[in-house]
Each structure stands twice: as C-alpha cells, then as structure tokens.
C-alpha cells in the first residue's frame, strides 16, 4: 500500500491500554468516571500529543485531539469511538477506533499532508452505559442532549448519580452544557472505526465492513414488587411472589422478539436482581433489564407494548406492583450514503474487499447519525466474539481500516 500505515505502531498502542482494568486477568472492566478511565485518558492524551494533536478534555470527559486544516474555520472531520468498556469485556471494543484515529493523524503528519478541514480524534466517555444503565453519555453531551436533570436521574448500583460521579472524577457537572458542540457549524462528519463484534464479516472472509445502518435501541429496568413471606408456610394461593411474576415476563421477552420478525430484532434480559435473594423467602422484589433493538422502530414498539401489557396482566392477576424505568431510547439510524460511496471507492482503490452490513450493536455513531453525516467501518472480530475477554481482532485489519479512512480523507478532503 502506498501509504505509511504502521501495524506495529497500532499494536503497541493497543497493548498499552490492556492494563487499565479493574478486573486484571478477567478482561477489561473500565467503567466511566473511575480511576481506570482516568489513567486510560491520561495515556491517550499523551499518545495524541505525540501524534501532533492539540488535546483537550471537554466538560463531559470526552478527550479530543485536534489537527488544524488549511482552513481553520472549516468544520472538523471527527474520528471517534469510546474508551470505556463493559464489565469483563475485551481490549478492542471502542479503543480500536480511537487508536486507528491516532494512527491516521500520524500518517498525515508523516506524509506532511494538511487537509482542507481540521480533523479531531475523539475518545468518548460512557458509551456502554454499563455503570448508569443508560449509554452514549459523551456523544449525547456533545450533541447538547445532556442537562442537569439527566445527571441526577441516572444512578449506579450504589446510588451514585452521574452528577456525583463527575465530581469524584474531577469534572464540574454544572458545566456539562459546555460539552455541546455547535455541530452544524463545527462538525462536517463523524467517522467511526469499530470491531464488528459479531460473526458475519469474519465468516465472509472479506477485509472490511461498511456499515449502512445501526439498529435502534431502547433499554428498561423493570421492578416487580410482591410480598416477602415464609417459603414453607405460605400456601400457593396466598402469595404475592415477585419472582413468579417477573419470570413469567422474562420468559416471554425472546418470544416477542421472534414474533416481531427479522430486521435485526433482538431483545435481551441480561441483568436481574432479587430481594432479599434467599432460598426460603418468597421474593419481595425482582428488578431486571430489558434491552430491545431493531432496524425497524415498529418492531421495538411491538416488544415494548407487549412488555407493558403483560406486566399489567400478570402483576394484576397476582396482586403485585411494578414500575418500568426507561434508561435509553435511540431510534434506528441510516448512515451517510455519500461517505459510504467514498469509503467503497477507497477500498476498491486499495484492493480491499468489503461488504455493506448493518450494526446490531449500539455505537456513538447511532447518536450522531441523525444530525451529522456519519459512517462506520467494521473490522472482523475473531469468531464473532465480543463483550468478553475472548474478543480479538487482527492488528493488520485495524491497519486496513486506517488505510481506507486515510485514503478517503486524502481523496475527498485535501
Ligand atoms: C454497546 O456495545 C451495545 O451495543 O450495547
Ligand atoms: Mn460494547
Ligand atoms: Mn463499542
């Protein structure tokens, strides 16, 4: 390839971040507003600076490294992904996109190329929603969608709000609106490289994926409340058993997803908590998550409608109470056709094979796509594994993604 991508530079950078986890030996656990994130961000800032970028942290804790273009007033091309992780995740989810962005900045510097537009390499904060149950915090803040009420509304399992977590982390929550960009004026495009996290691209044997749409997502925490009583002495017809009610709902969630049909429709109960969680006490309270995704908003609405109707019916019959707390709602998004065509042209030029494919995972790009021209490039995930310590992608595939994006920048924005 006639550019100066360095696979070993990418590998070295990726490996530097493996240690920033609160679960050493059990994958990456880098939850937002923690010491692990702070250390990761500090090192990222150093790597960005040594690539020649001017680095700043915004008031949401996003990290932004900027390389000026010939016209400093032109809107920036933002290349971003997230630096937080799930619990017991892998080293590639999110970080791969930031490191590829830094590599592109180094390639521009090494080739002494100044683009027409500035570029910004962005590490976003709390994309996963693992700690506070929501998600896309950094990009939401960038888009002006986070206010003080939001910071107080979402709390972690210990009852710590985003507001308080920001203070402990060294950010001033009162200044959250300063993270909002005047994106129509300031941002020309949002470009995200990410691992596929599934098996489709890997099984195809193709080099890269060009993502044409991302599923919409809605997330809920459902709490069913019954009455704690003795498990041995309370007759079956005199119980208000929160577990009995909750399990009748939980067992139907995947059926509703199948009934809703294709279009990438999935629904998952991945979290559950029982009170008092004892063998000989009838459950007083069961809380569980419902994560619903589809390319088709009507399918999401179908599943959420079923969830509400069945909660009414089942809890009504048994005399239990329930609450449903919505944690996230983002509609499905199409990515930008113009940028997809540019990337396809670059792949052809570089002799890299590709397929267009949808994303079933949520990404920062889902948050930006309705308002900023947005595109994603997927690199294959080994055995389709992700959100697991088994997550792996080849560094040479990350280098391929860097080359394609670099070529697209040079061809269209020079
Ligand atoms: C984030 O990775 C998600 O898709 O939940
Ligand atoms: Mn993830
Ligand atoms: Mn991710």
Kindly describe this structure:
This protein is 36% helix and 21% strand. It is built from 13 helices and 14 strands. The chain has helices at residues 7-16, 35-50, 95-110, 137-142, 148-153, 162-169, 183-186, 200-204, 242-260, 297-318, 337-350, 364-368, 395-413, and strands at 54-57, 63-67, 76-82, 119-124, 187-195, 208-214, 216-225, 266-268, 272-275, 285-294, 321-330, 333-334, 354-359, 374-379. The strands form two sheets. Strands 1, 2, 3, 4, 5, 6, 12, 13 and 14 form a nine-stranded mixed beta sheet that branches. The mean pLDDT is 97. Bound molecules: glyoxylic acid and manganese (II) ion (2 copies). Glyoxylic acid binds next to loops.
In short:
This protein is an alpha/beta fold and 414 residues long. The protein has helices at 7-16, 35-50, 95-110, 137-142, 148-153, 162-169, 183-186, 200-204, 242-260, 297-318, 337-350, 364-368, 395-413; strands spanning 54-57, 63-67, 76-82, 119-124, 187-195, 208-214, 216-225, 266-268, 272-275, 285-294, 321-330, 333-334, 354-359, 374-379.
| Ligand names | glyoxylic acid, manganese (II) ion
Q: What is the distance, rounded to the nearest whole angstrom, between the alpha carbons of the first and last residues? A: 19 Å
Compute the number of helices: 13
Q: What class would the helix/strand composition place it in?
A: alpha/beta
- How many E-type strands? 14
**Helicity level:** 25-40%
C-alpha-based Rg, rounded: 23 Å
**What is the overall silhouette?**
elongated
Query: Could you list the spans in which at least 5 consecutive residues all have pLDDT below 50?
Result: none
Main sheet specs: 9 strands, mixed
SSE pattern, N- to C-terminal: HHEEEHEHHHHEHEEHEEEHEEHEHEH
Which strand-content bin applies to the residues? 15-25%
Mean of residue pLDDT values:
97
